[in-house]
């Protein structure tokens, strides 16, 4: 991108530009903006001309890599965040999808701050009046919003329910159920109210947020004119498709059974279906739709949006596509951070806690910014970690995996790494391993080293919780005394 291009048109980066909403948004923004499409897949990196002007540039950026996202957002004035982490990103993934979401959002927010981005625009999900924590999917949405805001860049959140479009996951599930099941037993979650919105309307609203100062720092509900239950959406869609379907409601929630059944019938990963079904313990209805009123987007009806979606060429993007993985590992563990402590403190404390609690089997030696993890009686380390002073701060400490008996030689070239990172304004510290490639045969690694790491993390997490509780009790005693 040249300076003239930047001066003539604002530059907008889209994380998730290859996705269902991202592709439609990208097409909407061209050629009025210079667009940077961020994707983790290998794609052309040169700019693409629209109407004779360079308008689109693809940049490869793994959102789990802060370094790559920093490069990806260079030169961006505004940045869209259209990302979720429910699809596994490694051959072995240890950790909850909520914690993966926080890592991704934190990387994006940090990189946006460094790049001087003026505004982050995030497409989230509708939230009920009260979130009681019973739905991890709903609670995760709020945590992502908080994380994106935690580094000072103004954030605008559009909260949407089901986005109706040819390649959307929710519409894909509904249409596949209709095609494959003439009779459906409908658990109680299918009677929850929701607020569908057409893809075209979501894209128009996202585009309208760019540079809109009134929307800075706001979470804005959006929705179409219809408020419907899942049962009603299925019946309306079936009628448009010309199929008669019989639904029989039952007074049972059956979230786990429903998720398994839908995943099987719709041929979609259970990891994608389960959080969606679990979120439907509440009705999700848009409130305070002031942005739609302000820009005059009342929205297509559900039936209109379904007809458009069915007319569009159906692709297989509603189905989760498998990414080719090397035998790599990602482990993300959220630990309570004692008050007044930092990620830098945690990294040092962990290196001291480990040999103290695994004596005499494990010892840790520090040599010239390198940590050696040694098994009792052995001279060569099991793992060697090298501290990255250039990439570390007090709230994020990074070590690269640079050797050891248990590490494959490819770790150096693929940037295998261990990080300690503060999140959610210092409430927690994430201890995360990225792109680690074990030397052990995969079946042996998954049954030994992988389980050992998880056990150690749980033990260390318990230690930090006790330390945090002890500190809180001491403070309370001082305040009372």
UniProtKB/TrEMBL annotation:
GO MF terms held by the record: protein-containing complex binding
InterPro entries: ComplexI_NDUFA9_subunit (IPR051207), NAD(P)-bd_dom (IPR016040), NAD(P)-bd_dom_sf (IPR036291)
Bilayer-crossing regions: 246-266
Alphabetical list of Pfam families matching this protein: NAD_binding_10 (PF13460)
Presence of the UniProt keyword Transferase in the record: no
Keywords carried by this UniProt record: Membrane, Transmembrane, Transmembrane helix
SUPFAM superfamilies assigned to the protein according to its UniProt record, in alphabetical order: NAD(P)-binding Rossmann-fold domains
Keyword Endoplasmic reticulum carried by entry: no
Domain NAD(P)-binding positions: 16-161
UniProt name for this protein: Uncharacterized conserved protein YbjT, contains NAD(P)-binding and DUF2867 domains
Species: Aneurinibacillus migulanus (Bacillus migulanus)
